[in-house]
Specification:
32% of the residues lie in helices and 4% in strands. The two termini are 17 Å apart. Strands 1-2 form a two-stranded antiparallel sheet. It has one domain. With 100 residues, the chain is mostly helical.
Amino acid sequence: MKDAKYKLACIDISTGVQVPIPEGTCLAMVNKLSGKPIPEDEPTFIVRAQDSIAPEVPVFYRSRCKVYGVGDSILDTVDEAENAIKIWRSQNASKVKNPD
């Protein structure tokens, strides 16, 4: 598999510059509800609001969730993501582009 385009990084909030990860700490993507980290070796897929096809992704994902009987809490999360994408794009139309 090709190397991922994005990675987790430690960013200095005041400058926006990437800094070394402090000794004895680590960065991990975690589930907001359970707090469990996604294993580093588990592939993930990120869709950015700036991507021209981004609005289609939650629509498709929701339809598949319904087919598989996924619970309402996940459907609510998909709805939130869809709305956040719409809002961001309405405020940042000049930043929308084809994925690169």
